Amino acid sequence: MKNYTVGCDAHKRYSQFSVLDWKACIQERRRVEHTSGAIKKYLSKFPDGTPVALECVGNWYWIVDEIEEAGCRPMLTNAGKAKLMMGNVNKTDKLDADGLALLLHNGTLPTVWIPGGELRDLRELPRTRMALTKQRTAMKNRIHATLAKYGIRVDSSSDIFVGKGLAALGKEFVHLPEETRSCVEQELELLDQLRDHIQYLEKRIRKRIRQTKNMQLLKSLPGVGDILAILIASEFGSVDRFPNAEHFASYAGTTPKVKSSGGKTYYGHLRKESNQYLKWAFIEAGNAIVSSCNRPGWRNKHVVRLYERIRQRKGHGIAVGAVARHLAEASYWMLRKGETYHEPAHRKTLPKPG
Prior knowledge:
354 residues, alpha/beta, Nucleotidyltransferase, domain 5, 3 domains, 7 strands
């Protein structure tokens, strides 16, 4: 069998395959149950290198492994874009598999990057740390909200969840009702557990993930340390994947949605259709910059001036988003040129002609 393209519509318990020949005619449709080795066995009859189109669904890791073990070439695609390009009125498993195979045959399949198996495994470390960090932030916000309900203000200039701040928080417990106080104590215990798990993951990340040149370059970005540099580098992949900095910033979710019609342009929220790990990392770096605004030597940094300028007009959230976009675009050029981050040149305003 030569010059075939294969479309795979994957589900939880089975996958529907469609096979097209060199004339784009359907030669075979086959449903394969998700038992160990079944997909590998089915695809093994095709020549080495046969392309197989697969949507980027939740269980694609092991399916890609079996496609590769069969000697075929997996082609991962953006499910939403592929569906639009198919243009099917009806939706069935066979139509979806046919459509993927046809897009692949025509060379119009919107493919996405497939990291290697080892990197897919290692990426779970910084991704899990990110998930636990989100839970920690949510728990802290809940405690702050509980204190606000009862008008309690902890007299501390530092973080109220560590050291002197935590001791000051403990003194205010007496002002909370009995059951509310018990709930806050439980939440503080969970915070301690989350902190321990996060610290363990950070040690594991530093031990298992080898520092690369790209990670060293990314660490020169304002607000980016060891862990964020590892997360960004592992999600970034090769810089050649992106044609320009704007494309990468959009992929990282740091650009707003734009609606322009009749000479009027509206900017919405940051894009949700993006790599959520990169988006979180750049926003996290932006928030770290905000917390460093008053440190010696930071007031004149470009990122701080950018934040302050936009915050005055648009507010904190939009300003942090703008800083995140600057960091995303800067990281692209840093990796493209192989250079560390340096402050952008000041733009001088020319006097208006008399």
